[in-house]
Write a structure and sequence with these properties.
The complex is a heterodimer.
Chain A lengths: L4 E3 L2 E4 L5 E6 L6 E7 L5 E8 L14 E5 L5 E5 L8 E8 L6 E3 L3 E5 L1
Parallel strand pairs in A: 2-10
Antiparallel strand pairs in A: 1-3, 3-7, 4-5, 4-8, 6-7, 8-9, 8-10
Chain B lengths: L2 E3 L4 E5 L4 E3 L2 E3 L5 E8 L6 E7 L7 E2 L2 E6 L4 E6 L8 E9 L5 E3 L3 E6 L1
Parallel strand pairs in B: 2-12
Antiparallel strand pairs in B: 1-4, 3-9, 5-6, 5-10, 7-8, 8-9, 10-11, 10-12
The chains are: A mainly beta, B mainly beta.
Chain lengths: 113, 114
C-alpha cells in the first residue's frame, strides 16, 4: 500500500488479557519503529527494527511487552497480561531514505478495562 | 541525553491570525535535526517542517516557518494566515545524527476558531 497500515484501529480488552497490534510498513522501508502515546503525553519510543540487525528494545517499559518483525516487513507488538496503564495509542512508523522520511500509521487505540 | 520541551499545552487563535508554537530542546551533540509534526484527529503524524542544525537559514514551507535559535536551543513554529484545517496537536521532535530515534515533546493542542 501507499502508507503505513495499523490494525486494529481500536481495541478494548480486559485487564490481564494479551493483545497483538499489527503494523504493515511501506514496502521497501527497512526501518520500523513503535511508539506509545499516552493521553496528554508526547510519543514514547518503544522499539526499533533496522533490516536484519538485532532490534533496539531499550524503550520497552516491561517484559510484558515484546515485538517481532517478520521477513523484514510486517511487525507485531504484543502486550501480555495487559494493565490499565497500558491504555494508550500505539503508533508505528516506517522509515525510508532521507531525513524526515518517517511515515506514521494512524495508530491503534488500546483501552484496557 | 536528548530532551524536547513544549511549554504550551494548548493554544487557540482566530482564523487568519498568526500563531507561534514554542519548543526548546537539549542536546550536547552538534549534528542534529529538528522537526515539527502535526497530528489531526485521524491520529496520523504528518511532517510539517524540518530543520538541519548546521543550516543557519530558517526553514519555510508555505504558511509554516520556524525560528531556529541554535545558541538558545529554541525551535519555534510560526503558522501564518491560520486555517481551520490547522487545528491539531503539534509535536516538536529532534533526531541526533546516527541515533536513529526521534525524540518528541509533549505536544501543543492548537485550535483555530472560525
Amino acid at each position: 500500500g501507499a502508507g503505513v497500515s495499523q490494525s486494529p484501529s481500536n481495541k478494548v480488552t480486559e485487564k490481564g488479557k494479551d493483545v497483538e497490534l499489527r503494523c504493515d510498513p511501506i514496502s521497501g522501508h527497512t526501518a520500523l519503529y513503535w511508539y506509545r502515546q499516552s493521553l496528554g503525553q508526547g510519543l514514547e519510543f518503544l522499539i526499533y527494527f533496522q533490516g536484519n540487525s538485532a532490534p533496539d528494545k531499550s524503550g520497552l517499559p516491561s517484559d510484558r511487552f515484546s515485538a517481532e518483525r517478520t521477513g523484514g516487513s510486517v511487525s507485531t507488538l504484543t502486550i501480555q497480561r495487559t494493565q490499565q496503564e497500558d491504555s494508550a495509542v500505539y503508533l508505528c512508523a516506517s522509515v525510508g531514505l532521507g531525513l524526515g522520511g518517517y511515515t506514521f500509521g494512524s495508530g491503534t487505540r488500546l483501552t484496557v478495562v | 541525553a536528548q530532551t524536547v520541551t513544549q511549554s504550551q499545552p494548548e493554544m487557540s487563535v482566530q482564523e487568519a491570525e498568526t500563531v507561534t508554537l514554542s519548543c526548546t530542546y537539549d542536546t550536547s551533540e552538534s549534528n542534529y535535526y529538528l522537526f515539527w509534526y502535526k497530528q489531526p484527529p485521524s491520529r496520523q503524524m504528518i511532517l510539517v517542517i524540518r530543520q538541519e542544525a548546521y543550516k543557519q537559514q530558517n526553514a519555510t514551507e508555505n504558511r509554516f516557518s520556524v525560528n531556529f535559535q541554535k545558541a538558545a536551543k529554541s525551535f519555534s513554529l510560526k503558522i501564518s494566515d491560520s486555517q481551520l484545517g490547522d487545528t491539531a496537536m503539534y509535536f516538536c521532535a529532534s533526531l541526533i545524527q546516527g541515533a536513529q530515534k526521534l525524540v518528541f515533546g509533549q505536544g501543543t493542542r492548537l485550535t483555530i476558531n472560525p
